[in-house]
Amino acid sequence: MKRTQYSLLAALTVGLASCSSGPNAQTGTVLGALGGAAAGGIIGHQSGRGLEGAAIGAGLGGLGGNMIGGAQDQRNYERREYYRRGGGYGGYGGGYGGY
Question: 21 with 28: CB under 8 angstroms?
Answer without folding.
Answer: no
